[in-house]
Amino acid sequence: MNKQFEERLSALIDGEETQTNDVFSRMQQDDELRQRWQRYHLISDVMKGYLDGQSFPDISSRVSQALESEPTILAPKRKPSRIQHWYKQAAGFAVAATVATVAVVTVQQGQFANNEQIQTVAIDTPVRNVKFLAVNDPAHPRLDSAVESKLSGYLVQHNEYSVTTKMQGALPYMRIVSVTPGKRIMKISDEK
Amino acid sequence: MKNKFPLYFLVVLFVPALSLAGEQYEQMQSLLKKMHKAAHTMNYEGTFVYGQRDQLSSMRIIHSISDNEEKERLVSMDGSGREVIRNGNTVTCILPDTKSVVVEKSRPSTKFPPAFPISVDRLKAHYAFKIIDGSKVAGRNTKKIMIMPKDNLRYGHHLWVDNETGLLLKTHLLNEESRKLEQFMFTQISFLDKIPASWLMPAVSGKEFKWYEAEKVKPDNEKIKKSSGWYVSSMPKGFMPDMQRKHMIPANSMPVEHMVFSDGLSSISVFVEESTNEKKDNLMGSSHVGAVHAHGRKMNGYHVTVVGEAPLAAIKMISQSVKKK
Questions:
Q1: Ordered alpha helix ranges (H), chain B
Q2: Residue in chain A lying closest to B159 (CA)
């Protein structure tokens, strides 16, 4: 597949390509193209946040089980090389919407290159990575626990002398009582 | 004559508008007073949800008043087991997740009921007000008070107040872009004649926890007596010094200078303590707990920490203006 066609395929998924007839007729005949179509959609869905990250690993584990129970049909030897090929193509993939995720997938490739069930991994990896990045938001790192406990002490002192506590009693303490520790007090990384 | 007509017209137009505003301020003052009285004098037990940014949690609150003494207990219902008990002059924070109990005994000496802290007259310069009928909260009819700031250095408040008792049932705290930063809302509330004493007891004994108690920290009198000379050179408009004291912080054997500034609604605390570079428990830079922002910085052998229910810009402005005479 040439690069131009690949970009058209991606543009079609992003809703930016209107000439569709030849793409679809090629897809009817080309098994590899259909799979690529599916993967690009998956990447696009992950990028747009349509997958919650919970449902997908379940599907992939079911795929794994299917692979184990039916090895002759679902795990032909040529598959790893096809994935490798896709990664190489993907690295030069120029359409804006999917670039960020593709970069993550490429970094992760090495870890799974020797895995026989590589197709499962390929589906699973983008989902996990996106979730990982979302949880450890670098803009809001957690405070060190010693700093946090001292700040909690200051917060008690502050509460006892604030107008809000004089008006609302214990209510401002909901900030200390609520949620799991470490999530309560966040560092704002606007400076050192 | 021709020229006088518009003048009459203006007078006719403005007099009702002014008296309407005056009425609104009076209504505001009396509704806030009712809310303040209810918060301190009612026996109640309720469940509420608290949300800040992307997190939601539920808590139970119990408030009791007997023999002119208030007792309050706030308990997490999310499994952390955290609770805060306010009783007389003591605040006890039980934190099972960190296996610690913090007991703070330096609450301001209060008479009962405590004085009403707000003057609507003073707030007028920096906030606009409105009262409308609010939606039901926990099945009860409410009035909704809207207090909106005139600049971006303080928060907006929407308060839903119970028509019958005056108790605060729901709040929205709005940031400088009028987005919801924090909210709380009762889902169930019961008013009772008497609160059973057992409801105010902590769920855990805390025997196995580490206790930080204010009275067990021996204050170094020499250090406490030493004149401090700390002040804040510039702060958001309308903020004035409310209180200044020196005390010991339970988790920390150093004396701390504590100053409180307020615009009459929002309060900001400044803490200054002696510090060495080896100390690793000082906040450097900005942080937040819900709608409370904090900012810390080093200053010639001292550490300054500013904490308050205000936008980060206001907190930083104060932090950067802390000076020694």
A1: 4-41, 120-123, 221-225, 312-319
A2: A168
